[in-house]
Amino acid sequence: MLKPNIRVALTFAAVFVAVTATPGASVAQTAATEQVLTGFGALDANCANATGANILSPLVDGLDGSFYGVTVNGGANGMGTVFKIGADGSYVVLYSFGSKASNSDGALPNALTRGSDGNFYGTTYAGGVAGGQELPRSSGTTYCYGLHGLGTVFRITPAGQLSTLHAFGAFTSGGNNIGVNADGAYPMSRLALGKDGNLYGTAYTGGANSTGTVFQVDAATGNVTPIYAFPSRVGNTSQGVIQGADGKLYGVQSGEFYSLTLQGEYTTIHVFSIIGGEEGALPNDIVQGTDGNFYGTAQRGGANGYGAVFKIDASGSYTSLHDFTPPGAAGNQDSKNADGISPFAPLVEAADGAFYGTTSEAGPNAFGTVFKVTTSGTFSVIYAFGNQVPDGALSYSPLIEASDGKLWGATARGEQEQPGTSNSPDLFSGPYVNGTIFHITLPASSAAGGGTTGGQTSEHSGGGGKQNLEELAWLATLVVANSIYRRRLRWQKL
Predict the structure, then answer these.
(1) What is the rounded CA–CA span in Å between residue 437 and residue 415?
(2) Is the distance from CB of 158 to CB of 68 less than 8 angstroms?
(3) Is there a contact between 129 and 170 (Cβ–Cβ < 8 Å)?
(4) Distance (Å, rounded) from C-alpha 70 to C-alpha 151?
(5) In angstroms, how far is CA 270 from the centroid of its own chain?
(6) Range of the domain at 438
(7) For residue 367, which of 217, 243, 379, 385 is within the disulfide window of CB 3.0 to 4.6 Å?
(8) For the whole model, what pTM was predicted?
């Protein structure tokens, strides 16, 4: 089960860029540092490799000082992994999904959450009981088939012992990939640890209306109980939930920000504008700040149409904190800008009271950025991917803040043959083609400070340049054709 350790540490000088929300504004620079700790290699014809591939979710801090996470692809069976990485970059695969007959242990893991018992809990998008659509997977050049099942809930110890707690039940009516059942199907998000010690999550489809559910996982017994079935007017969701300071669950469902009591009472707080409006559109998971307000990112929309960072108060009032600028502004090449576009990851609040996040595209080198934004809307870019080879590209993973103040994160793709360009035929290749794990050390005047690890405590549960958009679409099919196929269609309409 255990794989050989990989220890790689590459340090690059970064650029700390202060950016205003005005397109074409001047840019100030200060030094920062990024360190790549390890990376993920190519997949074989069976979508497998030794280390796993493509991280789309946050790392989680363990009680032993190490970090834990999942890759959605790769591993010994080509169905994703659970891994552990030390602060020194020592990396080991703890479990490869697909190790049991008929994928009964699950396949395509979403994310981990550390439970109050020190173990880790998560969901898989597929696997479990028989049934459901046969899902294709891509190794980049070859499609692999054979995945069945509607997903699982699992527990795994820090030593790598996995227990399947629940397999989502077969559809009683409907089609292969969208139908009706009791508990939901195809979960796509991270579980949230509740104040009661139980865990809460969402399922993409299934439930009484075939549009998904919010469910509770009893941490003691592993029993899954649906507490709400989304109505058909709302549609399916790939976002998870958090538990607010008031004990209610909060989440985003098809552009609707809602609250939900543990007894299943649903309240709409805010409805986001459609693409083309001034507000952000296609919001990601939302986090609650220490000030009681809610903060988030939107993949598209905003004043310029390329995504936004926003704040929503308890009454549902929306405030834009930053609107990402159009690529090509201020003399940049078509796929570049100062601040990045298309954030796909939720924010994390650090000990300094500011929020940190990533964009998946554009920026000074066209491969995305890491940014900081304050509650009043002061925005700055602290790192631009593509600054050096191989620092990674296309970051969809939320950042976390380690106890030493460093920001840890991951990218879904890796080495660029020609950093800083967007027209290379070998845009993503090399030994880290399927992503990297990195951390960033901020300048002393801008350091986040230690004491809070966002990957655990924030409980978030994941255009520029034609080729970058094509890469996003390629990664969509890589993850799984059934669910992310809808996102690919959505991008094509933008």
Answers:
(1) 12
(2) yes
(3) yes
(4) 15
(5) 22
(6) 10-99+238-493
(7) 385
(8) 0.84
- In the chain, the amino acid numbered 481 is A
Say which CATH number the domain at 401 has.
2.130.10
Hey, what amino acid is at 251? G
Task: Name the amino acid, one letter, at 365.
Answer: N
Q: What angle do CA 48, 161, 196 make, to 5 degrees?
A: 115
Asked if 74 contacts 56 with a C-beta cutoff of 8 angstroms, the reply is no
Cis peptide before 390 (omega within 30 of 0): yes
Distance, in Å, from the CA atom of 290 to the CA atom of 357, rounded to the nearest integer, reads: 17
Do the Cβ atoms of 184 and 211 come closer than 8 Å? Answer: no
Does any domain span residue 121? no
Residue 120 included in any domain: no
pLDDT digits (tens, 9 = 90+) for 388-407: 767 888 899 999 999 888 99
Contacts of 290 (CB under 8 A, 6+ apart): 349, 353
Taken as a whole, the chain contains a residue count of 494
Query: CB atoms < 10 A from the CB of 443, how many?
Result: 13
In this prediction, residue 337 carries a pLDDT of 93
Domains in the chain: how many in total?
1
Q: Which residues pair with 252 in a beta bridge?
A: 257
C-alpha closest to that of 95 among 106, 87, 410: 106
Residue 165 to residue 225: CA distance in whole angstroms: 12
Share of the chain above pLDDT 70, in %: 74
DSSP 18: E
Residue in the block written with tokens 């552009």: 255
Name residue 254's amino acid.
S
> Coil, strand, or helix at residue 483?
helix
State the number of CA atoms in the 13 A half-sphere of 247 facing the CB. 7
Please report whether residue 132 resides in a domain: no
438-478 confidence digits (pLDDT tens): 999 987 765 555 433 333 333 333 333 333 333 333 333 33
Q: What is the pLDDT of residue 137?
A: 60
The one-letter amino acid at 453? T
